[in-house]
Specification:
4 domains; binds adenosine-5'-triphosphate; 11 strands; Hydrophobic Seed Protein; Beta Polymerase, domain 2; two-stranded antiparallel ribbon
Amino acid sequence: MNIENLLEKTLTKPQYKAIKILGDQFHKTGTRAFLVGGTIRDLLLEREVSDIDIIVESDPWNLVHKFDPKYQIEVISNSQFNTCKIKFLGQAVDLAMARKEVYPASGALPEVTSSSIEEDLGRRDFSINALAACINPPNWGEVLDLNRGLQDLQSKHVRILHAGSFKDDPTRIFRCMRYSGRLGFALEDDTKTQLLNDLTYLTLLSGVRITNELVKIFSEKSLNSILDLMDQFKVLEHIHSGFPKGSEFSKRKKLLKDIRIPTPEFVFYVLISLIESDQRLDLIKRLDLGNKLSKFGTDLNCIELLEVSSSRSEIFKQLTEVSEIAISVAEAYVSKELRSNLKLFVNELKTISLCIDGEDLMGIGIPQGPKIGDILSKILTHMIDSGPKSKSGQIRMAKKFFCDS
Ligand code: ATP
């Protein structure tokens, strides 16, 4: 199959021109070069191509330095793994050397060695991502399909390349959900069986690797469908047993839909709020989410523990250290009664403050020490329950509390 026409039709003019020249220059160095992965998958689906990924059979950094000097190539980054990011004719392009990978253990990072493009395609996650199209001028647009990727694109299936794929790299379980939800593709039968079988390998992934995959999932337009798939295939409950399941999960997900929190933090706030309160801190530890999100988890627990019948000052006391973000997330899913307590706190109680301080109390003869703080806090509690007081009223009250103590 040759996709010469598709390249011209689907790529933008600047993308097309950049790829054409790069193919030409790589050819002059005597190296085969291919568009691969998502670039070719999206081209074949006639979707907009956002990233240009090119594979060459040598170190791309060395090759780029052999290009005709009339072409200005800006090297943005170059890694020790023989990958390099360049900018050419205004286009960001990822260049990588063809490689094969051996996984020393499930969930561990692979050992990488250089390889041919054919071997490189064999180490990929799914057949739809294991397609390549040559960009050397004599074979421009010729598709390399060694894993029946074209057939799977046509029949709309996500299929792993070998039975050990999810075991080798359990992050592929998340990737599988992501492509299936994004493209509306079904899981091929054996892939489905294997995925369900291999869910336990998710426990071998570090918190950071899981978190990276979740961030990608939460930036997808089809987030909702992907989360549904993750629920359906029990992926979430294998990350942590405290995630709600089935209809309870759908209900909570719907409630959280409208929370306005800037990404990428949104991901974690939603995840933490989805989980049952007694297991929240455990999830935060498992995903290595750090102190700020631990505080958020504790804050949510604090809100959920608030009694509906609490007095105004009890509400104030319980929520005074709680972050605004925890309150706005909790507002999305707590009961109507609890929500009105949260609103009362945000709109009224939080704004009540004293107009006297420790110095005023020392000025009326109360000695310095912990008593000062106790008295100020008692006055505030009194004002929260019974209404505001003038400065002189607050001083009078301080004297009374001091005498009573
Ligand atoms: P997206 O549109 O989500 O960016 P993509 O296909 O470009 O899709 P990348 O994560 O950028 O995805 O990866 C590029 C390619 O590298 C993939 O198409 C796939 O062939 C390969 N790849 C990425 N991650 C893995 C993995 N964990 N295992 C095997 N192959 C992978």
